[in-house]
Amino acid sequence: MKEHRMTLAILLTNLFIAFLGIGLVIPVLPTIMNELHLSGSIVGNLVAAFAFAQLIVSPIAGKWVDKYGRKKIIIIGLLFFSASELLFGIGKTVEVLFVSRLLGGVSAALIMPAVTAFIADITTMETRSKALGYMSASISTGFIIGPGIGGFLAEIGPRLPFFSAAVLALVSAVLSYITLREPERNEDEIDQKATGIRRVFTPMYFIAFMIIFLTSFSLAAFDSLFSLFVDHKFSFTPKDIAIAITGGAIVGAIAQVVLFDWLTKHLGEIGLIRYSLIFSVFLVYLMTVVSSYTNILLVTIFLFVGFDLIRPAITSYLSKIAGKEQGFVGGMNSMFTSIGNILGPVIGGILFDVNLNYPFYFSSLFLIVGVMLAIFWKRPTQLS
To answer: What is the value of pTM for the model shown?
Structure first.
């Protein structure tokens, strides 16, 4: 048990380092875009390239995690991420930047299912929810701290954050190679009768995957347009936007560490997902109604809590029913997240040009569909 705690700590540290690296580059992206005179459509395509690569590779990565082992895929994913950031740092042409983003998408597709499966192997049904809550919190914390450090490094040089992210990922890969041991498979198994892609449509998987897509779509539409929305509608400054996003990330991380395990024990994963969806629907719609500065900040900050509880709850549920297919469900989780991440900003952007509020109305409708699915979602008898 003590060894498993140490392994979990190493995994969480590696995730923190990787997502700290992603956060590092956020403040300097506009500078790089201006330096290379890139249009808005090219920037949008760069974002889509990352999600597209993740979408294509995720199903294959899930199989590789189960076939070749968790540790190998984690290390390969971190090396891909390091190469991606290095390329973006030295890139002087659009083609190089696109290759960088494609490699970044591949790295995300490899790392997340491998880490999730690793955690499932070293935890029990009783301790898994807490561990996955910590996993989500380590990711959120990396995102919180990363932009601040990145802004400081950018004062030295606009490309330094990319090189720093590449070094951090390389260090994380070396740390994983030295300290991690391939875990024994934790097979609290539930019988799987469907095979191949048909497994996606089995009742115990299908609703979970649909809710992953619906919430990813809604969050991506919200995230990608939030800055424009509050700038156009409320004249928020970059500082105001940073306060809202950072505040939401901090509150979300605290909720994942302090509340997530307690809520899953009292409500169960499905119950927590159901109530978090209702909470999110209300707050997404409220964004279009509130007007005072304080209320906007409060709604934004607490809006992220609902999404930050839904994601680890679904991951926890899937890991408990996956049995021998931890890599498969991790890959599908990543794939449906990618589909939402691609479609959300595209459709949201089209609606935003028609009316500032329409993307949020549309996100609310998508989340309502999620609520309806969650209402009819029954806990598998094997887990009761």
So the answer is: 0.73
